[in-house]
Automatic annotation (TrEMBL):
Keyword Secreted assigned: no
Assigned GO CC terms: cytosol
Protein name: Aromatic amino acid beta-eliminating lyase/threonine aldolase domain-containing protein
Highest taxon listed in the record's lineage: Eukaryota
Keyword flag Lyase: yes
Gene3D superfamilies: Aspartate Aminotransferase, domain 1, Type I PLP-dependent aspartate aminotransferase-like (Major domain)
Length: 356
């Protein structure tokens, strides 16, 4: 696909920076399955220190990272986890926790801010006292929350869930695919956001722009077992330092660009709000780099799937339509202010021609 496309589909489309490409070229490598790839070791040590955990493990993807963590916490037959009904693990990871991990999911309603109410978690906890039920072992959160438009879970909320988990002897896992976005939005140390979590998965290949990979975090014992699970799931990599080198740049250089991504997302949302037929509240709906908006079918006679096709064919713009009347746009370091202004201009022109 042409590099001239302006790509709003996701922050997963980010391409490695020139600095990353050079670091990959120069990377000192070994065999990571044997544990002697020095660049992977450097990345893992750096991540453990940055996020305040004893140890870290480099894995090929966020989906594998979440699966490993869930399986690690829920090794007992008949285990159950509690998570939001719009959680990425529940919706977009092919049900791997059930099909591969044999872990039952018990979902609770996801609130507009991406949280799960504490009472909803507590009501769903099932202990070993009744043989009819699975036994709750784990609670999973997501920060930032993808389906809720990149909403940020606050430190206070995460701590309250952590306290509840401790009360019942449960583990807490954080799907932190975009945790660095949350840390930047809250202006806090990322380690604070998972201090009370027993594990976390951090994606390097979204807004942090690495070509491949995620980091999972936990105790040394947890990561030792996670390494075994990574192997059986097909995630053991050999000269993985070539990839880890980019991940090091992701953690050291890319977070400073995320604030600009958030500002550009707000700029995009404010522009959309001014276009007749678009429905979005920039102040409430946009906190980080994800922008969801709706079209009002009573005001326009063209749907977003059609518009996405026009953008691709005529304007070199890629976007994701979530059905006919809702779309998600994601900002990343490859999207400039000028790109956003061009998108808004063309979008306004299309809608003006299709007003009811």
């Amino acid at each position: 696909m042409s590099t001239s496309f302006i790509d709003f589909r996701s922050d997963t489309v980010t391409k490695p920076t020139k600095e990353m490409r050079q670091a990959m070229f120069d990377a000192e490598v070994g065999d990571d399955v044997y544990g002697d790839d020095l660049t992977v070791i450097k990345l893992q040590d750096m991540a453990a220190q940055l996020f305040g955990k004893e140890a870290a493990l480099f894995v090929p993807s966020g989906t594998m990272g979440n699966l490993i963590c869930v399986m690690n916490h829920c090794g007992q037959f008949g285990s159950e986890m509690i998570l939001g009904d719009l959680n990425h693990i529940h919706l977009f990871e092919q049900g791997g926790c059930a099909t591969l991990g044999r872990v039952h999911s018990r979902v609770a309603p996801t609130q507009p801010d991406g949280t799960i109410l504490l009472k909803d978690i507590e009501e769903r906890i099932r202990m070993v006292t009744d043989d009819h039920f699975p036994q709750t072992k784990l609670v999973c959160l997501e920060n930032t929350h993808n389906r809720m438009g990149g909403k940020v879970l606050t430190l206070e909320y995460i701590q309250s869930v952590g306290q509840l988990c401790k009360q019942y002897g449960l583990k807490l896992h954080m799907d932190g695919a975009r945790l660095m976005n949350a840390a930047v939005a809250l202006d806090v140390d990322p380690a604070q956001l998972i201090e009370c979590c027993d594990s976390a998965s951090i994606c390097l290949s979204k807004g942090l722009a690495a070509p491949v990979g995620s980091i999972i975090l936990g105790t040394k014992e947890f990561i030792l077992q996670a390494k075994r699970l990574r192997k059986v799931l097909g995630g053991g990599m050999r000269q993985a330092g070539v990839l880890a080198a980019a991940g090091i740049i992701s953690l050291t250089q890319m977070p400073k660009l995320l604030k600009l991504d958030h500002q550009n997302a707000k700029l995009l949302a404010e522009g959309l709000a001014k276009i007749p037929g678009c429905e979005i509240n920039p102040e409430n709906d946009v906190q980080t780099n994800i922008v969801y908006f709706d079209l009002n079918p009573s005001k326009v006679k063209i749907d977003l799937q059609t518009i996405a096709g026009i953008f691709k064919q005529e304007h070199g713009i890629l976007m994701s339509a979530s059905g006919k009347w809702k779309a998600r746009l994601v900002i990343h370091y490859m999207i400039t202010k000028e790109n956003i202004e061009y998108f808004l201009e063309q979008f306004k022109n299309i809608l003006e021609k299709n007003q009811i």
